[in-house]
UniProtKB/TrEMBL annotation:
Entries under InterPro entries matching the protein: DapB_C, DapB_N, DapB_N_CS, DHDPR_bac, NAD(P)-bd_dom_sf
HAMAP family, per the entry: DapB (MF_00102)
GO terms for biological process, alphabetical: diaminopimelate biosynthetic process; lysine biosynthetic process via diaminopimelate
Protein's name according to its UniProt entry: 4-hydroxy-tetrahydrodipicolinate reductase
Uppermost EC category: oxidoreductase
Highest taxon, organism lineage: Bacteria
Family from the record: Belongs to the DapB family.
Biological role: Catalyzes the conversion of 4-hydroxy-tetrahydrodipicolinate (HTPA) to tetrahydrodipicolinate.
């Protein structure tokens, strides 16, 4: 195989909403070729048998760690679209990769370029506002809440607030119905809406004396995720170890 040969890509979760789009995108792109479609019940050995250079995981939060571990153990670069890899799981992957890894694991909470930009804009805005909350809205067949994107956004907003020396956001609530203030991720409240008709949407709300700022992103179609997914497939092999987010790939 020379450097100009197409990248062999295995798609895990190939029959799913995202997986079927990914199969189509990989088939359409001139520099990638579909090596394998892995569905529930298929053996992961199919990944090694197929000779795939890159595996794209679009399955379920319950199985993603097992899949990534298998890829790392077999030297297959992994692009992880599935939500559910938290810090503890990422540490497991890092230790499996070892000190001087050859294999890349690129974990992308959201492949949509607009969503990546919106997270960066939120990170920039965070230090200027005393209040910050996130409202994410998704289709009702989504397994996880809050979304991986919201969790990542809360993480970067919280880090920026900490670096700026901001304390807790003002909140006088002392009596509340369970869940009324959403989930709290590193001190940032996150509210999850599940509703027919939606695909994937997020607002990051900031407030300070006399003004608010809202950063909103909408994916109306899963095709919005495909350019970023293909960028990740092309880049993962040149980024050994664990990378989170598409920022570096986009040059942000
Ligand atoms: N990073 C990003 O930009 C995006 C990420 N996502 C994430 O991708 C994941 C998939 O989303 P979506 O496509 O909507 O979900 P779907 O339920 O439509 O698709 C998941 C597919 O994976 C299959 N699957 C489940 N477990 C396994 C397994 N162990 N091995 C092989 N296949 C398996 C499912 O099979 P079965 O139906 O039999 O269970 C299904 O076909 C979610 O975590 C979602 O949050 C989604 C959109 C964008
Ligand atoms: O399940 C989805 O649909 C999506 N999942 C990802 C997430 O959890 O953030 C990305 C996007 O929001 C769509």
């Amino acid at each position: 195989m020379n450097d100009h040969s197409p990248i062999g890509v295995a798609v895990l979760g190939a029959r799913g909403r995202m997986g079927s789009e990914a199969v189509h995108a990989v088939n359409q792109a001139p520099d990638t070729e579909l090596a394998a479609e892995i569905n529930r019940g298929d053996s992961l050995e199919e990944l090694t048998r197929s000779g795939a250079r890159v595996a794209v995981d679009l399955t379920h939060p319950d199985s993603v760690l097992e899949h990534v571990t298998f890829c790392v153990d077999n030297g297959i670069h992994a692009v992880v679209g599935t939500s559910g890899l938290g810090e503890a799981e990422l540490d497991t992957v890092r230790s499996r990769l070892g000190e001087d890894p050859d294999t890349g694991v690129l974990v992308v909470p959201n492949f949509a370029v607009g969503a990546v930009l919106s997270m960066r804009f939120a990170e920039i805005a965070a230090k200027f506002f005393e209040s910050a909350e996130i409202v994410e809205q998704h289709h009702p067949r989504k397994a996880d809440a809050p979304s991986g994107t919201a969790a990542r956004t809360a993480h970067v907003v919280s880090r920026a607030r900490d670096e700026a020396g901001l304390g807790s956001a003002p909140d006088a609530t002392t009596k509340e119905l369970d869940g009324a203030r959403g989930a709290e991720i590193n001190g940032v409240h996150v509210h999850s809406v599940r509703m027919s008709g939606l695909v994937a949407h997020q607002e990051v709300l900031f407030g300070t004396e006399g003004e608010t700022l809202t950063i909103r992103h909408d994916s109306y179609d899963r095709r919005s995720f495909m350019p970023g997914m293909l960028m990740a497939v092309r880049e993962v092999g040149s980024r050994p170890g664990v990378t989170v987010g598409l920022d570096a790939v986009l040059g942000l």
